[in-house]
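User: My instructor asked us to take a sequence, write out its structure as tokens, and then describe one feature of it. I'm not sure where to start. Here is the sequence I was given:
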Amino acid sequence: MKVLNGAVLTSCAHLSRIVMGLVLIKIIAFYLGAEGMGQIGQFMSMATMVYMVAGGGITNAVIKYVAEYASSPKQLLRFLSTATTYSVVFSCALLCVGVIFSKVIAVAVFKNSGMYWIIIALAFAQLLFAFVNLVVGVSNGLMQTEVYSKIQIIGSALALPIIWVLIVQFGLAGAALSVLVVYAITCVPAFYFYVNSRFVGKVKLRKLKMFEFKRISAFTVMMLTSALTFPVVEMMIRHVLIESSGYAAAGIWQGAVKLSSAYLGFFTVFLAYYFMPTISRLDNKREIGRITIKFLISMMLLFSIGASVFYVGRNFLIPLILADSFDALGDVIVYQLLGDLFRVSSYVIGFIAVAKAATKIYIAAELLQNGLFLLSAMLMLHLYGDIRAVMVSYAVTYIIYFIVSAIFFGFYLKAAPLHRKENASSC
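Assistant: Let's start with the prediction itself. The structure tokens for your sequence are:
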């Protein structure tokens, strides 16, 4: 029953995010077309990177250790003070970088230095991203799924009218600001839940000890690897696609990427906020293997059903969700869906590395999947130069990556049993 309740609440929360995300790309597609989607695509990728690393990208660390220290109030409060201090320092450093290099980044992203103020807005917005990530991490580490759900649902409701006005009134610049609003608006409900929590006034900034810094920074390294691999790879591939086929083709691919992000997000949110805390508490590899296989089968089955429905109705759903200018996506969406099936399946296995803070394994996995995608996409684009090349490369990449992940998962289960370190509880 607890799993079912968690799944329902998480589903409702992410459904609100899916609706908000789809409305965003629908408005952009309708008012700016496929070319406009191609132009805003680079900034979307950059905003995703910044959101992931905001506050040091330690959401998974917060979930993991809050889950472990839930029954020890002193250790929990000490950890939260440490995590908050770390997050504040990282956010301030990122703010300085964003402001100082705003014009350089604007040229790289928009090919227009005059858009530097958008980069500065993003630099300030990431302070809000970091706060939300901390609140969400704590609530999910404590298995308070309803808090996370309400934050997402309320945030989505607040964002919808704002992004509509921004895009309609201000075009490309408004679309860029809308991307920030989608991420930042959740700070409003997050602040409400924070001031009504038992932690308000108790979490203090404190001097970080070296072992604390090392332990938390391991999660920063993992998140930075994610943030600087797939989004950067996307940006590189998009650049080549624009050069070979134009902004319209890049916009169609961006539409596929955003659709993919919408439904994949449901699975990753549930894995991060239910599966990972569950695995974090376990030391028995047989039990870890049993739960992982259970989740893997469930995820593959659920995704396959949804993907089949979407594929059958693609000629109706794609123009409905995006616009008529995205009709060409229907011819190649099967490759995206196939790649996503194996990608989400790989995520189930990959979250074990996060739950056990296996930094080296996580980094190696990120580099492998993104290196495969970049290499295959560049090769296919060189040969064929159109969007089908990118889509096929994506499917091939994640089929190979899932096979490799499954093999290493088998080795992991056969290895020596886990033993929690004696000093793991000292924070």
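For the description part of your assignment, you could build on this observation: The first helix runs from residue 2 to 53. Try explaining in your own words what that tells you about the chain.
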